């Protein structure tokens, strides 16, 4: 497989210190000639990606104007080939699986050293996913679980639509607005989805739906 050449990197990060050391890690990985653009709000993503093509998008998840998962969704709609890597302090399933569902192809925890982050970023050029060891272990554990029943839940069209929104990290209120129905109705759909999948939380919902092939990455 041909190696990638990463020359332009967009970083979405609102904390100044993190902006600096992430930029330094990028330079360590790709050299001083790499072009780095830093933005601190999700609202700026569309304009930057529409005006210029980037090779790599590093995305924080907790931004002042929303979730980085929304930024990944926006980025993938503009350039579906863009490599999106999450850089975050959050290792929970509720952050990890919606990020992967949105289109992230890597997940780096910020407690890694700058040198370790640089090494993971450099490996992207060799088509090696940039994933922190803790996250890799979590994913392996998930896939090593016992095989689920082959029986597929029988979702209605509205339940399937609700499932897609929930898996992307949307709130019940957001689902209701997007589907043009009341939040009470959406809540009812969510309860039915939980019941049919045999889960009790959003993270379990996304994992189980992906494992059964109901949701695709």
How would you portray this structure in words?
The chain has 217 residues and is α/β, with parallel strands linked by helices. The chain folds into 2 domains: 8-141, Rossmann fold, CATH 3.40.50; 157-211, Orthogonal Bundle (Arc Repressor Mutant, subunit A). The chain contains 10 helices and 7 strands. The strands form 2 sheets. Strands 2-1-3-6-7 form a 5-stranded parallel sheet, sandwiched between helices. The model has no long low-confidence stretch (mean pLDDT 89).
Number of helices: 10
In terms of DSSP E residues, the strand content is 5-15%
Largest sheet: 5 strands, parallel
**CATH homologous superfamily of the largest domain, by name?**
Response regulator
- The CATH topology of the largest domain turns out to be Rossmann fold
End-to-end separation in angstroms reads 22 Å
Mind telling me which CATH architecture of the largest domain this is?
3-Layer(aba) Sandwich
Roughly what is the average pLDDT, rounded to an integer? 89
Summary?
The chain is an alpha/beta fold and 217 residues long. Helix content is 50%, strand content 13%.
How would you describe this structure in keywords?
single chain; 217 residues; alpha/beta; Rossmann fold; Arc Repressor Mutant, subunit A; 10 helices; 7 strands; 50% helix
Helix-strand blueprint:
Blueprint: E1 8-12, H1 16-30, E2 35-39, H2 45-51, E3 56-59, E4 62-63, E5 66-67, H3 68-78, E6 83-88, H4 93-102, E7 106-109, H5 114-124, H6 133-143, H7 157-167, H8 172-179, H9 183-197, H10 202-211
Parallel strand pairs: 1-2, 1-3, 3-6, 6-7
Antiparallel strand pairs: 4-5
Helix pairs in contact: 1-5, 2-3, 4-10, 7-8, 7-9, 8-9
